[in-house]
Amino acid sequence: MGIADGSARTAQGSPRIALVLGSSQRPAEIVAAAKAAERGGFDELWVGEDYFYTGAIASAGAVLAATELPVGIGIVPTTSRHPALLAMELATLAGLYPGRLKAGVGAGVPDWLDQMAIRSRKPLSSVRDVIAGLRTLLAGETLTVEASSYQAREVRLAHPPAVVPPILAGVGGPKALAMSGGSADGTVLSVLAGTEYVKWAADAVAGGGAGSVHDLVAYVLCSVDADAAVARERLRELFGLYLLAGPRNPMTEAHGIADAAEALAALDFDDAVRAIPDAWIDELAVVGTPDDCARRIALLAEAGAHCVALCPLPDRDAEAQVDLLARELLPRVRAVRSAR
């Protein structure tokens, strides 16, 4: 289950601690936050592509140029770019910054894809087919295929990368996780991935055939303050936006709160947010005092996460949040790792 030999973990132990950039920051803030993360001792960076905020490819290029850290793209929807063009973009980044790029693809958020009329009718097949096409092209081979979601005729990259980036799948349900375990180099779990869900997801990817180096990356909402109640309230509305948008899902099912979350979602949004139990926020996010947050990260690692990717609050200064996390949280995470 997960990475047995530690090859995708930090030299100091598990897990790697990453920072998620992109959608929560204005474009002008991304590089400054990335530099602060490198300065503060984060292990790697991830950039998102939430429509219609910031583009993952452009963001990844800027962050790769500004730092020496590994950078993951998490995730690009498989229908928003033809895999031949996506492979070209990934090959360019991997050629410029060999060994530092990781690429995540997934089905994407249905509402956003519907705005562009590009939602796949077979999202799981689309993700699997695109991963296969990317592997072929990035290996320098010729791709000719008639897949359910795209076609390609004798496509071959002129500059395939010498170091092929790992391909991860951003998925959540049981069939999709099993597919990721059999097809991808890793899996990116969406925010609200608490410990019970991470355990369940790790079992699912292992059941799909994942080997010992399958990298499990858990995105988590993060809010840290000396007063745990203050940290929780800063996060409450954002937490509610994610929870109540689709209250019955594999994450809430794994934690046994799907029925209660559905009942909350039927209320007025403000009333529902106020009624979210504190225990849910504490379990499904990294929130509270620095010690609280360090313990939560350790529990996510024990559950099977090889990388915990912290998502900062969108309405607060990103660089200041990174500095706070580097100063108050990361030393405690390292202390917990050493103690274990």
Summarize the structure.
With 340 residues, the protein is of the alpha/beta class. 49% of the residues lie in helices and 17% in strands.
Structural class: alpha/beta
Report mean pLDDT, rounded to a whole number: 92
End-to-end Cα distance, whole Å, is 19 Å
Q: List the helices and strands in order.
A: EHEHEHEHHEEEHEHEHHHHHEHEH
Spatial order of the strands in the main sheet? 1-2-3-4-7-8-9-11
Biggest sheet character: 8 strands, parallel, barrel
- The outline comes out as globular
In the predicted model, the low-confidence regions spanning at least 5 consecutive residues are: 1-12
Q: What's the total helix number?
A: 14
The radius of gyration over CA amounts to: 19 Å
The portion of residues forming beta strands comes to 15-25%
Approximately how much helix is present in the residues? Answer: 40-55%
Number of strands: 11
Q: What does this 3D model show about the protein?
A:
- This protein has 340 residues and is α/β, with parallel strands linked by helices.
- Helix content is 49%, strand content 17%.
- The chain has helices at 27-40, 56-66, 83-96, 110-115, 123-138, 174-183, 195-207, 228-245, 250-254, 258-265, 269-275, 278-284, 290-303, 318-339; strands at residues 16-21, 44-47, 71-77, 101-106, 143-146, 151-155, 167-170, 186-189, 215-224, 286-288, 307-311.
- The strands form 2 sheets. It has an 8-stranded parallel barrel with strand order 1-2-3-4-7-8-9-11, surrounded by 9 helices. Strands 5-6 form a two-stranded antiparallel sheet.
- α3 (83-96) links the parallel β3 (71-77) and β4.
- α1 (27-40) packs across α2 and α3 crosses α5.
- The longest helix has 22 residues, at 318-339.
- It is globular and about 60 Å long.
- The protein starts with 15 loop residues before the first strand and ends with a helix.
- Residues 1-12 have low confidence and may be disordered.
